[in-house]
Each structure stands twice: as C-alpha cells, then as structure tokens.
C-alpha cells in the first residue's frame, strides 16, 4: 500500500504538539525539515512567521535555526523582485492568466502589488477565487470598488523587469503554503486568494477586509467547493481553479 503524501498541516500539528514555546517549535521544524524539500522550507517558514508574531527578534530566530540574524532575514523576509516563485509550471491555466492580468493592471506602475493581483483574480471570473469573493463580499462588486480605491492614480514609467512588491512576494509564498496545506500539487486561483488574505498587510488584504472577505470564511468556502466538485462524479479532483 502506498503511503499518502505528508501534508503541511500534519507537520505543523506534529511540531506544535511536541513543543510549547515558539522558538522550540522553530528549532524542531528545522530539524524535521532536513528530511524534506519544499515542504520543509514552508514548515520552517510557518514557524518563523509564528515566532515573529509572538515578538521574537531576528537574532533569536537566527539562533534557533543555527544562522546569523542577517542570514535569517535574507532567507525569510520577502523583498521586491521580478522573480515569480514557484515558476509558472506550478500554476493552473487560470492562475497564470491572473498573473498576466495583474501585470496588465500594473502597466502604469513601478511595481506589481497585491492590489493588481486581486484585480486579476476578480477578472478571472470563472476561477474559484472570484466565485469565493462573490459569495462572501458584503454586496456584489464591493471588493472591486474597494481595491480600486487602493490604486495609486499616478502614471509612472514601468521598469523592465517590473518587480513584485514585498507584500505581493509574501502573498505568493503564502499561496504555495496554502496549496501544500491542502495536499495539492498545483497553485490555483483559490490559493492566490488565500495567500493575499494570509499576508494581511497589503492593499488587497485591506480591500478584502473592508468588504467582509476573511481568511477563515474563504478557506471554508474553498474546501466545501472542492469537496463538492469531487463528490459530483467519479473523476479525479479538478487541478485547481
């Protein structure tokens, strides 16, 4: 019998249940991740984020994972960059179109921000992210109006290559983490939405908060829709939406 793949949530629960303090959890995550690849990186990332939210300094975090403060920051603090990680190979067709649409919305900007990514998700109306927003927002179209107010109206020269903002890079990282937590091997529009919500500080998160679209509600809706799609017929689960 082939063992089921390990999910990020299982690893997080295992580490959290065995260690009470956040820095102890982080050290344990590093030890466990030595046996893993990408999943291990996101396991460590989860507990780095937890330690930071609990008030741990970068010096303490570096000590816990066996590196300097500077090395820890370099690895875990997202910076502006034109690189898209993971590559498009991991994205569904809809998710790829969302990034293309985000670039279009940012055509008069120096950066690609979370607000542009959210507009791309809304434009890709057949995706699960857009359907989730439509089901949860306070009234039809309010999320689009809210994010449009976040746009910088000034026209600027677009650099080549055009970088993603640090907030957008973090959201993309958290989108991958959302995919792994659900045991998926792809990044769909639903994961991009969950990443924007989990990032919590960018323009997209502010707009979604104003229209009542929360991370908890979005996660519940996405899980229900995927389970419903699976139950509707004897066919493999859809590869993202």
UniProtKB/TrEMBL annotation:
Classification via PANTHER family: ATP-DEPENDENT CLP PROTEASE ATP-BINDING SUBUNIT CLPT1, CHLOROPLASTIC, CLP DOMAIN SUPERFAMILY PROTEIN
Residue ranges that the Swiss-Prot or TrEMBL entry lists as coiled coil: none
InterPro entries for the chain: Clp_N_dom_sf (IPR036628), Clp_R_N (IPR004176), CLPT1/2 (IPR044217)
UniProt keyword annotations, A-Z: Repeat
Organism: Saccharothrix saharensis
The keyword Transferase is annotated on this UniProt entry: no
Domain Clp R, first and last residues per copy: 88-229
Pfam families according to UniProt: Clp_N
Name of this chain's protein: ClpA/ClpB-like protein
The UniProt record lists the keyword Repeat: yes
